[in-house]
Amino acid sequence: MNKFYLFLLLFTVFSSSASAQDEEEINRSAEEIVGSECYLCHGKNGEGSSSIYPRLAGQHREYIAKQLMDFRSGRRTGTMNDMAQDLTNEEIFSLAEYFNAQPTLAHRIRDKALAAVGEYIFLKGNQFSGIEACASCHGKKGGGTKGLPRLAGQHKRYVSGQLEEFNSRKRTNDNAIMHSIASKLTELEREAVALYVSGLK
């Protein structure tokens, strides 16, 4: 069985088996963790305290949980490895639910011309360099799926940084498809796409 679908099955079983009282206790646990650790980089409501850290508000719970598990196992490397090391499965699922439920935000786009380039690449790709439309996987409004991240409203700097890490293979998980795409993007295209998605709601 595909590992991601096995993960989804386990996530569903865990979520559905929790009673209302259990869920209330889990949510309190998530708030405690966010209030003592996560808020420093990601903000209390997942809005992101800096553009170098991802916004987690409204992100798919399955995606958040998978990334935390990847950080915990070392499959994805970065500053989150130490933070995720001591998280239990229950705490991971709790945090995923918490951030998923937070209200989403969008950035104000000032450079309309650059954003227009990003919109074209995002919606239509680039037939001349073999780049598929980002929307074909992440949706026309950047909403993502259970297995693919929500990009709408994400910090431009963070998106650009992740695309560069996919290109250089510094991003150590989920990079098979994204490397083939990011490696074909010019710097202009990368920055344009990052700017465009930051303004999506």
Distinctive features:
201 residues, mainly alpha, Cytochrome Bc1 Complex, Chain D, domain 2, 10 helices, 58% helix
What's the average pLDDT?
91
How much of the residues is beta strand, in percent? under 5%
Q: Give the helices and strands as they follow along the chain.
A: HHHHHHHHHH
In the CATH scheme, what's the topology name of the largest domain? Cytochrome Bc1 Complex, Chain D, domain 2
Please state the CA-atom Rg, rounded to the nearest Å.
Answer: 17 Å
Count of distinct strands: 0
CATH superfamily annotation of the largest domain: Cytochrome c-like domain
- Report the CATH architecture of the largest domain: Orthogonal Bundle
The share of residues in helices is 55-70%
N-to-C terminal Cα separation, in Å? 35 Å
Stretches where pLDDT is under 50 for at least 5 consecutive residues are: none
The main sheet comes to:
none
Number of domains: 2
Task: Give the structural class.
Answer: mainly alpha
- Total helical elements: 10
Global outline = globular
Question: Would you give an account of this structure?
Answer:
This protein is an all-alpha fold. The chain folds into 2 domains: 3-100, Cytochrome c-like domain (Cytochrome Bc1 Complex, Chain D, domain 2, Orthogonal Bundle); 112-198, Cytochrome c-like domain (Cytochrome Bc1 Complex, Chain D, domain 2), CATH 1.10.760. 58% of the residues lie in helices and 0% in strands. It contains 10 helices and no strands. The chain is globular, with a radius of gyration of 17 Å.
